[in-house]
């Protein structure tokens, strides 16, 4: 056997480079640059010369590609979340409705148990739940009953309105007389005529069978009871999944988010009721038929900000146009403008102040997205979700909230949604003082 190979010493010549093709496109033998003039070279072992950088990605392309795969990753994560939410919609929607209802009832239950000391919290919760369910159920039953009872006449009036508008556009000064316009008008009329028969079927199809609807109502009620009674314990359990270093900050953000939801829910219900009563009385004084169903429609439309008022207002104007002519239609337009101004300049500032203030674009776009993704439930839940996210995000990025003790933030007070509102707003104890401060701010 031959002796074992020894490693080369310092005086031994360098081993020859094995013949063959270059190991890399940049491998050049010897000390040459392979005919590449001006190349920056790097001498490696065995006399191999490599360019220091063979090619370079343009900075703009590198940034664009980095943003692209991150955006795609976020889109995939968002799609996965929406897909899972769709699978769990039968559970998620009752829980979300219970949270919204809890934001309306929990402050009253805590106020009752705190104001009347001998009343236990469990008894106060039971009283508030029974009273709230009775009031809300009675109001919604009356509104829905009035709307359903007047739906046939309302559909007839709308059909006649569209027919009259179509005829006026054909024979009036515009002189529109083409087949496409006629087809669109006929489709709209056919849709209104068929909607009356399919309304109940569509409503049941949106939530499944009657048994599923009953199950979801029980789940909503069961969740609501524990959120009103043990909401603090439930929230602490959720916080247990947050890292300890960020737990206090997340606690403050969650409390402010729920406080904004309390203010939004309370104001929306009161504003919807005020709009419906004011518009109903005005429609009755003008002499528009179906005043009660139209008021019920305005009540439901108030839960979808901006878009709801536009849709319900158009319906009221069309009914007034076909029943009383152009004069009644103009009076209804004036009435709706007065109602909207009362809502925008008196009711909402009086009930909310600046604690919840979203840009109109931040209201319309989420409603449109919710309508596309989840239909009518998505449109109804879009603005509450944006309200909660807005308050929570503002708290997370606000430097001063990093030093706030979570126990000092009251999640049941709408003013806690934005601390700057608490510091800057005067808080008079009666209605006259609030209206005075409101008009002073508007004048300035």
UniProtKB/TrEMBL annotation:
Subcellular localization is given as:
Cell membrane
Q: Which Pfam families match?
A: AI-2E_transport (PF01594)
The keyword Ribonucleoprotein is assigned to this record: no
Q: Which domain of life is it from?
A: Bacteria
Q: Which UniProt keywords apply?
A: Cell membrane, Membrane, Transmembrane, Transmembrane helix, Transport
Bias class Gly residues marks the residues at: 28-37
Membrane-related topology note: Multi-pass membrane protein
Stretch list, region Disordered: 1-42, 399-429
Membrane-crossing residue ranges in chain numbering: 87-106, 127-148, 217-242, 263-286, 292-322, 329-351, 363-389
Task: Describe the family membership recorded for this protein in Swiss-Prot or TrEMBL.
Answer: Belongs to the autoinducer-2 exporter (AI-2E) (TC 2.A.86) family.
Q: What is this protein called?
A: AI-2E family transporter
> Which species does this protein come from?
Actinomycetospora straminea
């Amino acid at each position: 056997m031959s002796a074992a190979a020894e490693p080369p010493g310092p005086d031994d010549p360098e081993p020859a480079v094995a013949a063959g093709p270059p190991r890399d496109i940049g491998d050049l033998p010897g000390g040459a640059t392979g005919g590449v003039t001006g190349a920056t070279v790097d001498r490696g072992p065995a006399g191999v010369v490599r360019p220091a950088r063979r090619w370079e990605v343009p900075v703009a392309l590198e940034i664009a590609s980095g943003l692209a795969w991150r955006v795609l990753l976020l889109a995939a994560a968002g799609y996965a979340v929406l897909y899972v939410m769709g699978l769990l919609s039968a559970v998620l929607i009752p829980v979300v409705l219970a949270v919204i209802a809890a934001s309306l009832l929990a402050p009253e239950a805590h106020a009752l148990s705190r104001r009347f000391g001998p009343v236990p919290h469990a008894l106060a919760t039971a009283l508030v739940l029974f009273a709230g369910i009775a009031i809300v159920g009675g109001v919604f039953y009356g509104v829905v009953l009035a709307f359903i009872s007047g739906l046939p006449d309302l559909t007839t009036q709308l059909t006649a309105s569209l027919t009259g508008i179509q005829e006026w556009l054909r024979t009036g000064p515009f002189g529109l007389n083409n087949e496409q316009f006629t087809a669109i008008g006929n489709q709209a009329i056919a849709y209104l005529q068929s909607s009356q028969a399919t309304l109940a079927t569509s409503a049941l199809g949106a939530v499944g069978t009657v048994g599923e609807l009953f199950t979801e109502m029980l789940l909503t009620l069961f969740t609501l009871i524990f959120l009103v009674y043990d909401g603090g314990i439930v929230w602490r359990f959720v916080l247990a999944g947050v890292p300890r270093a960020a737990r206090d900050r997340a606690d403050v953000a969650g409390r402010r988010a729920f406080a904004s939801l309390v203010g939004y829910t309370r104001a929306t219900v009161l504003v919807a009721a005020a709009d419906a009563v004011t518009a109903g009385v005005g429609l009755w004084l003008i002499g528009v038929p179906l005043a009660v169903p139209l008021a019920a429609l305005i009540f439901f439309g108030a839960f979808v900000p901006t878009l709801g008022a536009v849709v319900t207002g158009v319906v009221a104007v069309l009914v007034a146009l076909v029943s009383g002519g152009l004069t009644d239609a103009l009076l209804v337009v004036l009435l709706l403008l007065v109602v909207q101004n009362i809502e925008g300049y008196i009711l909402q500032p009086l009930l909310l102040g600046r604690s919840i203030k979203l840009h109109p674009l931040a209201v319309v776009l989420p409603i449109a997205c919710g309508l596309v993704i989840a239909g009518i439930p998505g449109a109804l839940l879009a603005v509450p979700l944006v309200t909660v996210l807005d308050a929570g995000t503002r708290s997370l990025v606000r430097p001063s909230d990093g030093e706030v003790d979570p126990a000092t933030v009251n999640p049941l007070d709408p003013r806690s949604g934005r601390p700057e509102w608490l510091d800057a707003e005067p808080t008079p104890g009666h209605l006259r003082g609030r209206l005075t401060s409101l008009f002073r701010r508007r004048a300035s």
